[in-house]
Hints:
Strand content: 25-35%
Number of helices: 5
Distance between the termini: 38 Å
Number of strands: 18
Helix content: 10-25%
Structural class: alpha+beta
Largest sheet: 5 strands, mixed
Amino acid sequence: xxxxxxxPPGQERPVAVEAATTYDLTGLTADIDxxxxxxxxxxxxxxxxxAGGLPAxxxxxxxxxxxxxxxxxxxxxxxxxxxxxxxxxxxxxxxxPPLFLKTPNTLGGPDDPVTIPPGSEHTDWEVELxxxxxxxxxxxxxxxxxxxxxxxxxxxxxxxERRHQLEESGGQxxxxxxxxxxxxxxxWLVTPDEVDxxxxxxxSRVNGEPRxxxxxxxxxxxxxxxxxxxxxxxxxxxxxxILTGTPEGVALSGRFPYLAPGDVVEVEIPGLGAQRQxxxxxxxxxxxxxxEKKVTA
Length: 297
């Protein structure tokens, strides 16, 4: 089953997509958020679909797609989770998953334009598999317990400003990850029964030219391990999103130019959908930043 949120920013309505029909969920829930997931909302939608009790939403294809989960409490991100990406970044594969955070207000719809930060010359793309937590997880006993806490999977673009991330970081990466719109998500939250998360193909293109092409089979740390591992350090709440890392083929590698106004990025994971973002200029003048010693990624 696929869940989505359609409509203008801040006015999205929850829907389910099944067999090419989009069903209106406003009779069941006000939104697709942590409360909906924690209260068994997905099971309620499935029951309503099976009973034929949901109305189709007319003209759904004409509506903007928003992020499929509303304002998660946390967006937790794993770095260097593909060995080839670690190598192109000048690092060895990690022995433990590196964690950084993105703020919830970075969320955007899958086709929303993304504003390049003022003065940025190092804005980058990263296609990623995202995990949406469905039930609270803390101190799980083993990775085999993880799937029971997953509501579904999403496509994400972990947009990054590399100068802010690496040169002005102060030792952490989040400065380069938290500009407005830097986490396009969706178009759908897809339930685990429809996703083979260990064998998904991830691809990205810039202005129609291929950039990334890999599979989740190449991840250093798999989905089950990541949920279990994070639960040893923090509470994963319903609606939280985990971004699981990106494969090789980003601008940071030095093989491709960074993004400029007018560039179009497309990312795709078959079964989870596709995104298309046009990158636009800020309109705000850049301010001089501090001079800092570069920190190795």
